Amino acid sequence: MSRWGYLAEAVIVGIDPGITVGLAIIDLNMNLILTKSIKNARKEDIINHIVSSGRPVVIATDVMPAPEFVTKIAANFNARLYVPEKPVSLDEKIRITREFDSISDSHMRDSLAAAILAYGSIKKTLSKIERVAEEHSLNEKQKDILSILVLRNECPNIESGLKEILEEKRIEEEIKSGKTVPIRRRKFYTLQKDYEILWGLSLIHI
């Protein structure tokens, strides 16, 4: 089985903190996965909603400086924090969220605006990943993994992440063909911040 077989879909999360917390989650194609307004939400409540929707590569806010509530959630996931370079006007928030019919209040709107702006900040990187994925015939899951590794700075660059994924593909192909494959002690990535599992110097035969 792939070392990454359990990984959730990569997502971008926008958060509008306050007495009522706005939460918006989109995928890396800017499809809306979830939008909610949650009264008296604790940090743990927001984290649970995020975990059930995917693996965050960016946590975003629409205000500067970033509220502590948002920075703590980003730190919990070891995700990139997006903060706009300048204040985002109400007109801009309305404009960029206009096509989403499910927005029913200002908290949803502001959190979704944050997620969309964060998407714009990584769009060039995503385009490069898309091009590399096509060149090397990566499937959607493998492309998602590459995005996670790159956007969360879990590899130094796209080429390094690609090398890791191609090595994983090679191992999977050898296992499927019935070969005995040595598994060395290697780091791989989970939902937990800075968590490592060390694979023993053993043999796996399937």
Q: State the end-to-end CA separation.
A: 10 Å
Total beta-strand segments:
7
The helix count comes to 6
Strand order of the largest sheet: 3-2-1-4-5
* Helical residues, percent: 40-55%
Structural class: alpha/beta
Sheet with the most strands? 5 strands, mixed
SSE order, one letter for each helix or strand: EEEHEHEHHHHEE
Mean pLDDT: 83
Structure report:
This protein has 206 residues and is of the alpha/beta class. The chain is built from six helices and seven strands. It has helices at residues 43-53, 68-77, 90-97, 106-135, 140-151, 158-176; strands at residues 10-16, 20-27, 32-39, 55-60, 80-82, 180-183, 202-205. A five-stranded mixed β-sheet has the order 3-2-1-4-5. Strands 6-7 form a two-stranded antiparallel sheet. Strand 2 and strand 3 form a beta hairpin. Helix 3 packs across helix 4, helix 4 crosses helix 5 (140-151) and helix 5 runs antiparallel to helix 6. The longest helix has 30 residues, at 106-135. It is elongated, with a radius of gyration of 19 Å. The N and C termini lie close together (10 Å).
